[in-house]
Design goal:
alpha/beta, Rossmann fold, 2 domains, 35% helix, globular
C-alpha cells in the first residue's frame, strides 16, 4: 500500500507518520497543503489519501478515482466532511478513526468548570485590573445535575471522569450502555432538557441530529442552563443559541465547535475579515467560551489519529474487516 498524506503538520504529526509508516512498512509521501482541485494529482501513484477536515466533494472524489485512489482515510472520528456515499458508489473505501477519549472528555469537564466559576469573565476583568467580586460568584459542580447526550466512547468517558465530582448525572442515547448505567441514569431528552443544569453534547453529526438543540429544545431547558458542545457544530442551531443567550435562558455556552467552521479553524486568519458573523457575536459575550476545535489536541490523541489512519487504511486495502470502514 502507498499512502499520500494531505494537511501534514510538521510540528506534531510528521514524527508520528515517520514512526508508524516505518513500523507498518507503508510507503508514503505528503504535502502540507490541504486538498483542493489544484493538488489532487499529488496523490497519483498512491492507493490511499489521508486527510483531516477538508470538505471532500464529488469533483474531488472523481479526480482521485480517475488517478487510481482506492480509499480515503480521514484521521478524524467524524466523516461528515466527505461525500462518503458518492465515494462508495464509485467503489472507493472511506475510513475514519478513533483516538483517546480522555482528550475530549477532560476538555469538556474543563469547560463545565469554567462555566460554573465564570472563568472567562473573571479573566477578562482581571486583564484590565478589575479585581472586584461583584458579578463573579460561581456555583459548585457537585450541586449540579449534568446531562450527557450521546454515550459513545467520549460521552462514556465524560461520565466516568465526572462521577468523581459527586454530581447527579443523567444520560441519553438511542443505544444504552450497561457500563453507563452504573454511574448515570438513562432518561428521555425531554427530561435532560427540563432537569439538567449542564447539558453536554457527544453525539455524531447525522441528518437526524441536525440542529437537535433548537429554539424548541432551548425553551424546555432550565433558566440559566449551561450548554457544552465538544462534538459537532451542526448539533446546535446557532441563531437559536444566540437568542437563548440574549434572553438569559442560557447562562453559559462552552463551544469547541461551531457551524461553518470548515476553512476557518486550523488556519491563521489574523488580519482577515472572517466570513462567519455568528462567531463574532458568540465571541463577544462574557458568558460564552469559544475555542477552535482543539478539545482533541493532546500528544496521545494525535499519535492515535496518525497510527489508526494508517492501520485502518492498510486493513481495508488488504481486505480485512475493520470497524472504522464507513458502511
Amino acid at each position: 500500500m502507498k499512502l499520500y498524506v494531505y494537511s501534514m503538520r510538521d510540528f506534531d504529526e510528521l514524527p508520528d507518520f515517520e514512526r508508524f509508516c516505518e513500523k507498518y512498512h507503508v510507503a508514503w509521501d505528503y504535502t502540507n497543503e490541504t486538498p483542493c482541485m489544484d493538488n489532487l494529482d499529488y496523490a497519483k501513484g498512491s492507493d490511499v489519501v489521508d486527510i483531516i477536515t477538508t470538505v471532500i466533494d464529488r469533483k474531488m472524489i472523481d479526480r482521485w478515482h480517475e488517478i487510481g485512489i482506492q480509499c480515503i482515510a480521514t484521521r478524524t472520528i467524524g466523516y461528515d466532511h466527505i461525500d462518503y456515499e458518492y465515494a462508495k458508489s464509485l467503489g472507493m473505501g472511506v475510513i475514519h478513526i478513533t483516538y483517546s477519549p480522555s482528550s475530549v472528555a477532560d476538555y469538556t469537564i474543563m469547560m463545565m468548570l469554567m462555566g460554573c466559576r465564570k472563568a472567562k469573565h473573571i479573566m477578562e476583568r482581571a486583564a484590565v485590573q478589575d479585581f472586584t467580586l461583584k458579578g463573579k460568584m460561581g456555583i459548585e459542580l457537585p450541586n449540579c445535575t449534568v446531562g450527557i447526550i450521546g454515550t459513545g466512547k467520549i460521552g462514556k468517558t465524560v461520565i466516568r471522569h465526572l462521577s468523581g465530582f459527586g454530581c447527579k448525572i443523567l444520560a441519553y442515547d438511542i443505544c444504552e450502555s450497561e457500563e453507563v448505567k452504573e454511574l448515570a441514569a438513562y432518561v428521555s431528552l425531554e427530561q435532560i432538557y427540563s432537569e439538567c443544569d449542564i447539558i453536554s453534547l457527544h453525539a455524531p453529526a447525522t441528518e437526524d441530529n441536525y440542529h437537535m438543540i433548537n429554539a424548541d429544545a432551548i425553551s424546555k431547558m432550565k433558566q440559566g442552563v449551561m450548554l457544552i458542545n465538544c462534538a459537532r457544530g451542526s448539533l446546535i442551531d446557532t441563531e437559536a443559541l444566540i437568542a437563548g443567550i440574549e434572553a438569559q435562558k442560557i447562562g453559559f455556552a462552552g463551544l469547541d465547535v461551531i457551524e461553518q467552521e470548515s476553512g476557518l479553524y486550523y488556519f491563521n486568519r489574523m488580519g482577515e475579515p472572517l466570513n462567519n458573523p455568528q462567531l463574532a457575536v458568540l465571541r463577544s459575550y462574557p458568558n460564552v467560551l469559544v475555542t477552535p476545535h482543539t478539545a482533541f489536541y493532546t500528544d496521545e490523541a494525535v499519535a492515535n489519529m496518525v497510527e489508526n489512519s494508517i492501520v485502518c487504511a492498510r486493513d481495508y486495502m488488504e481486505g480485512k474487516e475493520t470497524p472504522f470502514a464507513v458502511k
